[in-house]
Amino acid sequence: MTTALLSTADELHARVRHGRRAVVMTMGALHEGHATLIRTAREIAGRDGEVVVTVFVNPLQFGAGEDLDRYPRTLEADLKLAEQAGADAVFAPSVDEVYPGGQPQVRLSAGPMGERLEGAARPGHFDGVLTVVAKLLHLSRPDVALFGQKDAQQLALIRRMVRDLNFGVEIVGVPTVREADGLALSSRNRYLSPDERRTALALSRALFAGRDRHAAQEALRARAREVPSTHARAEALSAIGESRAAADAHAVATAAPGGPAAVRAAARQVLDEAGRVEPPLKLDYLALVDPSDFTEIADGFTGEAVLAVAARVGTTRLIDNIPLTFGNLGAAS
Fold first, then answer.
1. 291 in Cβ contact with 304 (< 8 Å)
2. pLDDT digits (tens, 9 = 90+) for 255-270
3. What distance in Å separates the CA atoms of residue 184 and residue 221, rounded to the nearest whole number?
4. For labelling, which of 87, 152, 196, 225 has a CA lying 20 to 30 Å from the CA of 279?
């Protein structure tokens, strides 16, 4: 197939539509993570539908001192990747096409959730994100739009915007794609030197350490529920090759169900160690939050959660996260 390159909304609107239109919004510099989004969009749209990839570096979401001018523009390579992944069209509008007459005087507000974590680190960022997403949804007129779960707070805010403002579009989150060493794919990874990349691996290692601590706690709690809370419990544990330490661990796990504090501590230990190497990791935040509003969860929390981290290595700022489930709904995702 040949992927069309479009630069105006009129060109996009002139295309004949037969099935569902699925849109993947990007700022370009496409990589395998974007390709996964496009392939998923292709599956959702089906053979008779249409997949549109938007490529637009949005000036509204870059704050003072951030890397708008430095952000990579690789449209020719982006078009090739989009075509290989199954896109029917790439919509790459100019700033004047998206913001005729200059930056908009009327903008969307991300509200309280947009002021936490990423919003606190980058004031106004999510206002710019939601404004451009709303604009591109209007311009591209999709039935479904896909976003990566790596930007978990952004995804949550887009879902909230679509629900609160009655956009007639389905929002689909696609799991984070990682490189072989665990680093989440990002266009900013190219800025890392070899030494900086080694330090940056602490982000994913910290998340995995938190996930593993949580999984171990959930396994202990599940085992504790299976074995009666009597002397027979210790005998049963010994019979299946467990040490008496498991009984002590049972008491700890039961005293702090779910153990959000332990999850944070396990992740924090990895990040603290990375802060002492050269080049050091400079932590912006580590948070274990409720994805409905991105507030910190407390011990005893039950339900879905997100363990999120943001840090700088050298001049490059990176984010990452993983989903976890607390309580009787299951173990770590």
1. yes
2. 444 589 999 999 999 9
3. 31
4. 152
